[in-house]
Amino acid sequence: MMGDSMVKIPGIYLTESNAIGHLSHPLQLTYDGDFGEIKEQEIFRGTASLPSHLRSGGDQGKRRSRASLCSRSSDRSRLDTKTDSKLDLQEKDTELEVGEVFWNTRIVPILRELEKEENIETVCAACTQLHHALEEGNMLGSKFKRRSILLKTLYKLVDVGSDLLSLKLAKIILALKVSGKNLLSVCKLIFKISRSEKNDSLIQNDGILESLLEVLRSEELQANTEAFLYCMGVIKFISGNPGFLHEMIGKGAVEILMNLMTQINENTKKSDTCLPNSGHLLVQMTATLRNLVDSPLARSKLLSISALPQLCTVMGQYIGDKEVCTNVARIFSKVTTYHDCCVALANYSRCYALFLNLINKYQKKQDLVVRIVFILGNLTAKNNQAREQFSKEKGSIPTLLSLFHTFYTLDLHSQKPLGEGEERPKAPRPAQAEDVLIKLTRVLANLAIHPSVGPAIAAHPRIVGLLLAMLESKSIDDCEELVINTTATINNLSYYQVKNSIIQDKKLYIAELLLKLLVSHNMDGILEAVRVFGNLSQDHDICDFIVQRNVHKFMIALLDAKRQDICFSACGVLLNLTVDKDKRVILKEGGGIKKLVDCLRDFGPTDWQLACLVCKTLWNFSENITSASSCFGDEAANTLLVLLSSFLDEELALNGSFDQDLKNYHKLHWETEFKPVAQQLLNRIQSHHTFLEPLPVPSF
């Protein structure tokens, strides 16, 4: 009998009927431990049987379809239908014959080679050849009848222990669409290999990534959660290698992961509980996304599929899972440093309450809190709506205050007293508590810009008290970023001249604290201190303090700094001083007039607001002018006449190499701020200026 004759492949014995592809029993693979040797275990054995379309007399689906189309025709039509069925059957038989020939001529020889060959390189080459042949013969997937034969051979080779061979075997096994425990086993195998970075090149060269992504794309999540976990573990490992990013993103990794995350969110919402292993899976997924978002293309994809709200949902549903929340915070920390992503998250109004909940829940967990506060700093940096939205959330300011107090206290305790003559070593990066304080003061500085939030913070005694305590206790040499951020926050709060402002109440104490910044060698620290003096010097008592403590001499000296921002702030302080007639004379100290004119010449054409401040200062100074030369000095008076005449010529003044938006910006400030005061100053100088030269003293 045909069924009794044997076809022998070393290690595999098949009846000829089996060789045609009728063996239908599935195989189950198990592991001894997580990464033990693979065992083959048949779930059940059945006798070889004919395919269903041969048993039933043809392809039933096609047969019914054709009959229905001819149901109203003659008997001849129905006879033709039967004839078509016979032709159909013949075509199927032909396909089987072709498949049998392909199997015997192309596949069987490779399987024989795999069974007998001992050289790893040759076996690997044979695996590659097998994969290509199976693909060519359309024998991949779960419906191929000889699949179990292939799997038996492949599983035996896993025991060889070669990582390269195992990857090639795994790629074929995944292409055969295994499921259940078999899928789990092969994912574990690849995971084991991926744990070593030295195997990254093997993974990249063998193209296993696409197979893994296909598992996540096509397999059912709830039935394969553990397999997905190992699969994601592999993808997470290799995503840490920049060489994989382009390939991963190009093969749809971002979309696949976010689709999977959406499924998890929906399943969690439906069941009202976190499903088993979903937290572990999310850790791997979010860690992978954290690596992917270094790419502009990945960030663009996240925005196009509205991924940021989904990530917020994950945070909310898994708020008890610190690792998941930390990974999502890492993603947000990265993406919010880019304007489009920052705007997108800021516009998702639910994120603010979520971040406050996280701060309250994990207040002493520095690694998570520091990232949440950093994100809030990014969101509120350039977005007034974000500042308002956050401040309106219930408990926003008390939460920040509580966090401030917690980490200020931790920072105090971390500062061990030094012995006599002992110097504190300079840390390469801020200590953990200090790092939170740096980010937190930035948030406060940003919030203070909002016209309704700023006055409320300025009137908050505990917040202002902590800011001043920090400014008093910290040195800019040891804690540069923290001192600068703290001073910037005080500067923003000092802008508000309101009766209940703690800043205004303690203005002289603040001015005293700022002196140590002015005499430091840190120009950024000096700038922030000068800005505070710019706001505080609107008060008469502060102006007296400035003159009494010779702070005005610092301001005049800073006009030589050749930095536009410093000159602007220093000029602002000098302008406020010249409001008081008794203090105008200070501009003649240290060459103040000449330095103001130099600032006008150097920065005027690029900064009409600074030019306006210079002109206002000179206008105040020259209120009681009798002669331009005696007031400003001959050289300064003549220079001012030339500069002002030139700068008031619109064609000359606005002929800078700027783009159109910048030109419009400059023109606005030139017309509304500079031009009115400059024209008045020019008129005053011209009306008090003579071009007559004095006669030389006669000789006798």
Which percent range fits the helix content? 55-70%
- Quaternary state of the chains: single chain
Percentage of β-strand residues: under 5%
Low-confidence stretches: 1-95
Strand order of the largest sheet: 1-2
User: What's the gyration radius in Å?
Assistant: 39 Å
Annotation field: number of helices: 38
Overall residue-averaged pLDDT value: 83
Shape: elongated
- Biggest β-sheet: count, sense, barrel? 2 strands, antiparallel
- Total DSSP E strands: 4
**Class from secondary-structure proportions:** mainly alpha
Kindly, what is the distance between the CA atoms of the first and last residues, rounded to a whole number of angstroms? 149 Å
Protein name: Armadillo repeat-containing protein 2 isoform X2
InterPro entries: ARM-like (IPR011989), ARM-type_fold (IPR016024), Armadillo (IPR000225), ARMC2 (IPR038905)
Region (Disordered): 49-86
Biased composition (Basic and acidic residues): 73-86
Question: Can I get a quick summary?
Answer:
By secondary structure, the chain is mostly helical. The chain has 38 helices and 4 strands.
Structural account:
The chain is mostly helical. The chain is built from 38 helices and four strands. It has a two-stranded antiparallel sheet with strand order 1-2. It has a two-stranded antiparallel sheet with strand order 3-4. Helix 5 runs parallel beside helix 7, helix 22 (396-414) packs antiparallel against helix 23 (432-447) and helix 31 (551-558) crosses helix 32 (564-577). The longest helix is centred in the first third of the chain and has 42 residues, at 75-116. The radius of gyration is 39 Å and the shape is elongated.
